[in-house]
Design brief:
With 180 residues, the chain is an alpha/beta fold. The protein contains 4 helices and 10 strands; from the N terminus they run E-E-H-E-H-E-E-E-H-E-H-E-E-E. It has a single domain (3-178), classed as Rossmann fold. 33% of the residues are buried. The protein binds guanosine-5'-monophosphate.
């Protein structure tokens, strides 16, 4: 499909699935390189809802044992960030002394990840790194350090591969961008 329609909006093909899989493989090999030999426990924390497909693909490329956790923060309303972060679902395990990798689908303004990072630091993990499939550097101006980035994109609104518009479009295998 070169175009899809949701509500009154048209989205055009942007990143095909084969390219997404290449990004995931590259990210996984960077993470394998950095964590393959650490002695402490490693916990990957996926920020729901958008990152569940990315998380599932990513961990199946990891070559070391790790724990998986999911958190749900206040959701992205419509097509602009709210900047308000509350837990709807919190981490279910003690993080003290463990290495944390936050897995995010997309970093836009960076407010969600910045706020989440502050909350995680209070739990005294050994380290925290951030892995995101997509990043919009023009929007967040590096307010948080992103350790593993699949690809930088311009400030476009995208859907597919877990990302939605008002709850729809997550099942799309490819990533689409809003057509203007
Ligand atoms: P931020 O706090 O960085 O502005 O936004 C983070 C969250 O907003 C992401 O986890 C994602 O759920 C949502 N988001 C940001 N940009 C987009 C986008 O282009 N498309 C969709 N579907 N969600 C986005």
């Amino acid at each position: 499909m070169s175009e899809v329609n949701y509500f009154d909006k048209t989205f055009e093909m942007y990143i095909p699935n084969w390219e997404i899989q290449n990004l995931v493989m590259r990210l996984a090999s960077e993470i394998n390189r950095d964590y393959g030999r650490v002695e402490e426990e490693v916990v990957l924390i996926s920020i729901l809802d958008g990152s569940f497909i990315f998380m599932a693909d990513l961990i199946r490329q990891l070559e070391f044992d790790h724990h998986v956790q999911f958190v749900k923060l206040t959701s992205y309303k419509d097509m602009s960030s709210t900047g308000v972060v509350d837990f709807v679902l919190d981490v279910q395990t003690d993080l003290r002394g463990k290495h944390i990798i936050i897995v995010e689908d997309i970093v836009d303004t960076g407010l969600t990840i910045e706020s989440f990072l502050e909350q995680l630091q209070l739990r005294e993990p050994a380290s925290i790194r951030i892995c995101t499939l997509l990043s919009k550097p023009d929007e967040h101006n590096d307010i948080v350090p992103l350790d593993y980035v699949g690809v930088d994109i311009p400030p476009e609104f995208v859907i597919g591969y877990g990302l939605d518009l008002n709850g729809l479009g997550r099942q799309l295998r490819d990533i689409y961008k809003l057509k203007v």
